[in-house]
Input
Amino acid sequence: YDIVSSLHFSGDQSGAASIALAGLQGLIKADRWAIYLFTESKGFESSTLEAIAVIKAGEENARHDDEWSQLEPDLPIGSESKAAKRAAAGMGIIKRKERGQFVVAIPLICGERILGVIEGIREGKGAHAFKKTDVELLDSLSLPIASALANAVRIAEAERLSQTDDLTKLHNARYLRQFLLNEIRRARRYQTSVAALFLDLDDFKEINDEHGHLVGSHVLM
Output
């Protein structure tokens, strides 16, 4: 319940994935938990998965993708297990042993679409397979986690649309206002100067009047 409730307060995929993994590690012990999602550029058909968050035994918080350049170089694209690949390919829940590791992989399904997969790994001396109750709990949590990840994309897109012009795709006045406020705060904090430069196009109205606003938007771009 706490995990699902916490997911509602996350507005980005990495944050939602990190919350989910930190919660899972508290419920079901594993040497590593990871969430892989299909990369946006390649899509489902290419079967390319990319890890967006990972947590290892002994860690309280999951590391997510924007931290890995320094912290997690050992999870490049293609590092997922065979079990994870099979689960992401639509073969359902996979529980198996491979390369001396006990692996469980649960597909993340939202609607009729597979977004990615949760992967759990137990390894080393004394490691044991995931129990049936572990798998059932993971299965029950996979739906709210998948929904949170999908919703995070919609939130990010809504945020982007609220700060860009639909026609030109350029940043709008709302973005400018927030950007200037941030720069002014930064200047005050570090006691530096800040300047704004305004450009005005001569006779721009004539372009709109003669050629239409669509052409005018291309001129602005």
Notes: Residues 41-45, 66-74 have pLDDT under 50 and may be disordered. The chain is about 45% helix and 20% strand. The two ends are 48 Å apart (CA to CA). Helices lie at 2-7, 13-27, 68-71, 82-91, 132-162, 173-190, 204-211, 213-220.
